[in-house]
């Protein structure tokens, strides 16, 4: 008797994979997951540090496609105190191999590979980085090798992450390609509501009139269910009649409109309350934010070629749309509001239809551009991509990737066009630029105290504070280098900071330097784990091209428990 | 300083225990040296023995709990207890990294404890598969610090109130720092509470506003969103058609039934967007969760625990200092670390009644409903009384029946302006902060959580 229960359509029931990944698919969806699964990540690790291993843990769990760890070292006992992905039986075995083995236990769908070759020889091989989609480098590293990696990453347009994790402090910088656009930025839903009440199109105005024309004769129930958008449009018509066809523009006028035209409703008329609450945020013209106008005016958008990435074709088409209509394509979403079901659905459809029309116009322009640039049909831009762009146009983000800053021996640290901005950071008490400078000093220390282990008598990488005999001397050296960098910034920018501020800045940096030397290159597991969380999150954003990644340097201070993002 | 150096280089001899600490080379290096922020009298000898002696209680062995256990073990802690009554579900495996497919259905606390003990020899973890409410004060009294990685506000409030209630000014050991983490998608927070000394979870309740509920009449008559159709199936239709079956949100057949019921209602109203996944999300109140955010928040909590125990750097939660870190990672990386102020009228750690402005025309029933929605109270089954009389009790049944007629009465009929009213909720069964001097008898009002609310009648 009960055998006839209707089964839901097959595609609706979650697969095993969807069940496993349910909690993350709710954030980045199937396209994000696909991008993650197509990724092959390379980690270059030359120290016992595990911030990068913890990063991998947070990427293996959600199902990154493949990862490789380059690390020629053999497991020592001290590794067991920091690395959760080793066991006592790992002692004496290759650290990369053992770590890969235990990381792979986390997710049977992920492939891991160990590279036990020394970095010096690895990077000399031809096309050695082509299999990878993202590179992660953990400090310390020979800076000349890091420079080589940077060069390859730039040429191949592979995102490159460089990180430090020392004692209570950590840092990472991201080198992205020079143009890194993100369409799906996931803005807050309240920020994306775009109702066009100031510029209603005929269908919307018509609907509002229909809903409101007999307002005074309506039953209380019906009046209390007029969608608030219609109320706003209705009272805006009244306002226009009273104000020579203009709309409330200034803050004061909007307040007046709200208090004298819309007015609060009776206790049952929540729709009037909704209308009042929406006045200030809905009575806005659909202008493009400056970040989007920068995209419109970018050389890549202005000078399209047959092989330009689709992003720039769509940007150009939307720019044309914007110029023609004085507004962006309508996103088309309608927030929930008090209304009868049928009325609400009709209203939703009015917005959806207009959004589709706007999008169709942009698609047509894209097709014209494809034709005029001679773009082949194989490269035809997918309509869905145009649709996504139209929906999120106001929140589209473009990161202009900058090359990673590398401290080379015998060369002063310079900031170029960012020098003046760095001076400002130095005077901002919220900024953690002091920590960044301390890490630059740390890198300079490594660069000037390292002798290649391949050279006879070479000791390999030496980090400050790694032996007790030189603890005090290393502190002094580190502070000296860091203070030199501060003065270098001021010189480069041609600015001065007067005392007592100048001394305070230097004292603050000295404290961080002392902390870095104290750790002797060692990590605190908590800070490594936290940093691994931050970096994994940023890797996911970069891979999925969703949400907004750090541009371009992030610092964490585990003493004060706070982070800071710096554009270097 | 010279002593410090030797201790690093030579064989470990902390407190004469003498086990080999070469595993902890990097940790010890930091602890045995003074840093840029340590006190002048920083004694490198004590941190390691403090860590080894400390007993940490971890509440929750889920997304945060797995990370917390790993972090504490790799911070050198040796004595840990973990409480979690939950079992492992397949949807946990994308972040709860101590669990494997074969563990699905087993206890989270036990599997997590066994795994960490195997990976980090020398660390002892006791797993308790039970509710926090099953443990008594004597149990909680043995710990140095409590670290919470929970997904329920109710459990946090219970733990917080219990720890506040345990504070005995005569006994410094009775003050247990509470470190609490929480995440949702790319966002999270970690906070440190020194019960009675700094702002507590109850003081901070307004940081988590309850979600606005959809009015029942919308669900019943004018649905507009796919979620409305799902809630209709969930709240109204299930009761109507399957009231003899207890809804199990983990039973695919139940979710399928709700999904189909919601789908046909949505079709009737031309509403699009009802999916199986959304149905599951709405009825289970699923919050997106990822490994990276859990790693960040759990590590922040453990970092604070580590600093408190070792004094190796300043920690959050010192009175008049920052005690709260808010984290947002969806746009760049952003933290806001600040001092949340203790509230004098906090029902748990304050001593002043809270002013509550109400419309005297409101009925008691309407006030009861509002307690569930007010961000600062969030009480679902409030009991209310004044010094003089009982106003309403939601349980036991006899008392409920007796007081039910009051729900229809106006506040102005029952209270005078400025009168104090006590509100409690059986979900937060904790001590009223009251102690007798003799014999340690405490908690005479043990059955209730007491909010003193001075009613200010308007108009």
From TrEMBL, chain A:
Xref: Pfam families:
ThiF
Which keywords belong to this entry? Ubl conjugation pathway
Source domain of life: Eukaryota
Q: Which GO terms describe its molecular function?
A: NEDD8 activating enzyme activity
The record, for InterPro entries, names: APP-BP1 (IPR030667), ThiF/MoeB/HesA (IPR045886), ThiF_NAD_FAD-bd (IPR000594), Ubiquitin-activating_enz (IPR035985)
* Record-level GO cellular component terms: cytoplasm
**Alphabetically, which GO biological process terms does the record hold?**
protein neddylation
Q: Which residues form the THIF-type NAD/FAD binding fold domain?
A: 21-546
Q: What family does this belong to?
A: Belongs to the ubiquitin-activating E1 family. ULA1 subfamily.
Q: What is this protein called?
A: NEDD8-activating enzyme E1 regulatory subunit
Organism, per UniProt? Answer: Extremus antarcticus
Phylogenetic classification of the source organism = Eukaryota, Fungi, Dikarya, Ascomycota, Pezizomycotina
UniProtKB/TrEMBL annotation, chain B:
Which GO molecular function entries does the Swiss-Prot or TrEMBL record give?
ATP binding; NEDD8 activating enzyme activity
Q: Catalysed reaction per UniProt?
A: ATP + [NEDD8 protein] + [E1 NEDD8-activating enzyme]-L-cysteine = AMP + diphosphate + [E1 NEDD8-activating enzyme]-S-[NEDD8 protein]-yl-L-cysteine
Keywords attached to this entry: ATP-binding, Ligase, Nucleotide-binding, Ubl conjugation pathway
InterPro entries (alphabetical) = E2-binding, ThiF/MoeB/HesA, ThiF_NAD_FAD-bd, Ub_act_enz_dom_a_sf, Uba3_N, Ubiquitin-activating_enz
Instruction: Give the matching Pfam families.
Output: E2_bind, ThiF
Tell me where in this chain the E2 binding domain is found. 356-433
> Would the keyword Nucleus be found if you checked this record's keyword annotation?
no
Q: Cellular component per GO?
A: cytoplasm; nucleus
Supply the enzyme class, top level: ligase
Annotated GO biological processes are:
protein neddylation
Pathway named in the protein's UniProt entry: Protein modification; protein neddylation
In the Enzyme Commission scheme, what number(s) does this protein have? 6.2.1.64
Q: Which Gene3D superfamilies is this protein grouped with?
A: NAD(P)-binding Rossmann-like Domain (3.40.50.720), Ubiquitin activating enzymes (Uba3). Chain: B, domain 2 (1.10.10.520), Ubiquitin-like 2 activating enzyme e1b. Chain: B, domain 3 (3.10.290.20)
Q: Does the keyword Ligase feature in the UniProt annotation?
A: yes
* PANTHER family per the UniProt record, alphabetical: NEDD8-ACTIVATING ENZYME E1 CATALYTIC SUBUNIT, UBIQUITIN-ACTIVATING ENZYME E1
**Which family is annotated?**
Belongs to the ubiquitin-activating E1 family. UBA3 subfamily.
What is its biological role? Catalytic subunit of the dimeric E1 enzyme, which activates NEDD8.
Query: What is the name attached to this protein's record?
Result: NEDD8-activating enzyme E1 catalytic subunit
